[in-house]
Amino acid sequence: MVINLDGDGINLTVPPNNTTVVALHTASQTSDDLSWIKTAAGKDDGDVTLEAGELAELTVDVSGLSPRLTSSSSFTMEVKPKVGSSLVFERTISANVDKVNKLR
The pTM is what? Predict the structure, then answer.
């Protein structure tokens, strides 16, 4: 996740005190407030606000989903800050699933 424009930035305080929400939608379920953690992935001034020029990686916990995501499952994930536009992306789980997969 990266911000290209000047502005107030995105508050990435992690759950349970978060204001940025991560939601996941599949054909059979919606989870509106998944747990996640933030890791700096480049320039970072150490605060909880993602600001212009900074880069963050969010790791989202989907272990509580039922039914679970399986190989070839499609889903939509939405990162919704309290202020500003949401980041929405669609992905399909690969046919071969490892314990940890990076979906790009």
Answer: 0.80
